[in-house]
Specification:
Length: 306
């Protein structure tokens, strides 16, 4: 009989043997132990290592690891190299996910409006939700009606400048897990395999996060985007949207500057954090001079970004 089945049999049929540290007895059922682990995460920003979870809950390390693994697979918790934290299901159930995104929208709102006024283009704010981007805001100019996006709508992350800007801040193995082996094509120009996607993400990092796409999500639309960065990666991303021939290189510095300003509003100490605490493959420059921008971006044949 396996260790798992023994534990289940004891909790249901027999009188469980107490496992205690001091006077604290562990709950005998799996549901009770899962609840014990979730209770260890006192807030949205709480991040715990396996050892810390085992110490707080008094569970054996192997038991804690097995339950944590299941909670991650079911999206109750999230796991990164820096530990465990509450996942999408926990945050949504507790109402904290909406609060966090409300803060993001509030911080981004004046910058989105300014971008729209200065460029006359459509502006997007989005977050990464598993393998998709979810649009949190859309401010439109005269071009808005021809952009088939909507607040609350979704698009494949690998097919959008918004999504690729956020994916570029993740480790390669996490990108593989999120994107999956088969990448859905929405146009003939959509990236269709993970190898090509990783090459594109490498180029994005070389451009310090500036991301372009022309006709990859919608055939007649082009975008330039930059991620909004936090302590552990992307909090979201913003983009400017034009038609397929829009000269996006002219407005790219505005997008980069706005994304950086929003990042610093949400994470004021971002620049003082060590890179390993930010999960950033490359640091973002504070400014983009004309000379720097020329080095970051190059145009290939047929105005394809490379």
């Amino acid at each position: 009989m396996s260790a798992v089945s023994v534990e289940q049999d004891v909790s249901v049929v027999g009188s469980p043997k107490p496992t205690a540290l001091g006077d604290a007895e562990l709950p005998p059922s799996m549901v009770g132990r899962m609840t014990l682990i979730l209770d260890a995460f006192s807030g949205q920003s709480t991040r715990l290592t396996l050892e810390e979870v085992a110490r707080i809950t008094h569970l054996p390390r192997s038991t804690a690891h097995r339950i944590l693994d299941q909670l991650v697979k079911l999206a109750w918790l999230d796991h990164s190299p820096f530990g465990y934290c509450l996942g999408r299901r926990s945050l949504t159930l507790g109402g904290m996910d909406d609060l966090g995104q409300g803060e993001l929208r509030a911080a981004a709102a004046p910058y989105l409006h300014d971008l729209m006024v200065r460029t006359g283009l459509v502006v997007h704010l989005a977050v990464l939700d598993e393998g998709e981007v979810r649009y949190m805001d859309k401010i439109g100019g005269r071009f808005a009606g021809s952009v088939p996006s909507r607040v609350g709508g979704r698009a494949p992350a690998h097919a959008t400048a918004l999504g690729k800007a956020m994916l570029a801040l993740l480790p390669a193995e996490e990108v593989d897990e999120i994107a999956g082996a088969a990448l859905r094509r929405t146009t003939r120009r959509t990236i269709g395999d993970t190898s090509t996607l990783h090459q594109e993400l490498h180029r994005i990092r070389a451009r310090n996060g500036l991301t372009f796409e022309r006709g990859e999500c919608f055939a007649q639309v082009s975008c330039v985007a930059a991620a909004i960065r936090g302590r552990e990666g992307a909090l979201g991303a913003i983009s400017l949207v034009g038609d397929a021939d829009a000269p996006l290189e002219r407005v790219a510095p505005l997008v980069a500057a706005a994304a950086r300003a929003i990042s610093l509003e949400l994470t004021p100490d971002l620049d003082s954090l060590p890179r390993r605490a930010r999960r950033e493959p490359t640091p973002a420059p504070k400014t983009y001079s004309a000379e720097t921008l020329g080095q970051l971006m190059s145009v290939g044949h047929g105005n394809d970004w490379i």
